[in-house]
Amino acid sequence: MLPADQYLRTENRIQMPPDSRDFTAEARISPAGNCHVWSGHLADGTRVFLKQYPETRSWLQEKQAIQQWLPHLSPELAHLPQILAEDPADRTLLLSTVPGDSVEQIWSRLEQHDDVMRSAGAFLRALHDLPFEDTDEMPLSESLPMRLESWIKNHENSLSEAEICTACKRVGDGTQFLGDTRVPCHNDFQPRNWLWNGSQIGVIDFEHAHANHPAFDWIRMETGIWLQQPRLRDRFIEGYGIAPAWSAGSARDAVGAIHAIGCIVWGTRHEDKSLVAAGRRILR
Known about the structure:
Layout: E1 2-3, E2 24-29, E3 36-41, E4 47-52, H1 56-69, E5 83-87, E6 92-96, E7 101-102, H2 103-106, H3 113-128, H4 140-153, H5 161-171, E8 183-185, E9 194-196, E10 201-203, E11 210-212, H6 219-222, H7 225-228, H8 231-240, H9 249-269, H10 273-282
């Protein structure tokens, strides 16, 4: 955490409701993250978070997810953030706290691994099943190979020829995605964005949320914690209720390749060595 005095106070937050302008920052959290987040409180003592986004897109994505998707989910599934105030000009959201401890931070001493995975699976299935009208006319079988091409085109010497070749072979012409449809996705669904209060999961950080192939909500676990503890995949599927066809075989491998190339390119661009290493490990 950074000291509270490093909170960048601005005078242009006048569009936010009066109570949010009384926000007092106590500490900056996750200083290495893409977004700037400060913990603090309002004048009445209410604990809150102020989140500032690097670009309008991520601000809009979190706003849409919280306001348009999450209200349709049962509160019994997960604890979720609410927007208390917003400032488009400053790309900030004032967010309610979500109860629980970071699953990533308590994992080594947590005894309820199975329960956490089942809860995560149940939440994700409900999110994916939300009624959704896909306005993108391009099918995933065409758009996903193009997404890979875009990463490669803009890789700025961060990729080797072998990595490009491996990814292109796994994705191919995209026929493995024929018939698959976009659904509401978190797109960064993994333990670092989960909280646990002993009985119920909490899910945070929806700045990457948008309609996508559902496998992108599995891939960080497929290439991470499930490799270390394969039985947790089974517990997650119990919560999800089904092992979809795309959760194995060529579709999973193709999504993994796109994800890996994105990790290498984005990680190189932002000097995130661990992300680059993760991407390269997936392509081996």
